[in-house]
Amino acid sequence: MKPVIPSRGTLEPTVFAFDGGFWGERQELNRSAILPHAHEWIERVGCLDNFRGKPFRGPLFADSDVYKHFEGLAWETGRRPDATFEAWMEEIGALAAANQDADGYLNTRYRDARYSDLEWGHELYSYGHLIQAAVARLRTHGEDELTQVARRAADHVCRQFARDGVCGHPEIELALVELYRATGAERYLHTAKAFVDRRGGPALRDTPRGRAYFQDEQPLRAAKAFRGHAVRALYLACGAVDVAVETGDEELLAAIIAQWEHTIARRTYVTGGMGSRHSDEDFGEDFELPSDRAYSETCAGVASVMLCWRLLLATGEARFADQAERTLYNVVATSPAQDGRAFFYANPLHQRVPGEIPPTDRESPRAGTSTRAPWFTVSCCPTNIGRTLASLSGYLATSRDGTLQIHQYANGTIDDVRVTTDYPWAGAVTVQADRERTISLRVPAWARGATLNGEPVAPGSVTTRGREWRLDLPMTPRWTRPDPRVDAIRGCVAAERGPLVYCLESIDQQHDDLDGVRVDASAPPSEEMTAPGEFLFVSEDATLQFSPYHSWGNRGPSTMRVWTPHT
Ligand SMILES: [Zn+2]
Question: How much is the pTM?
Answer without folding.
Answer: 0.98
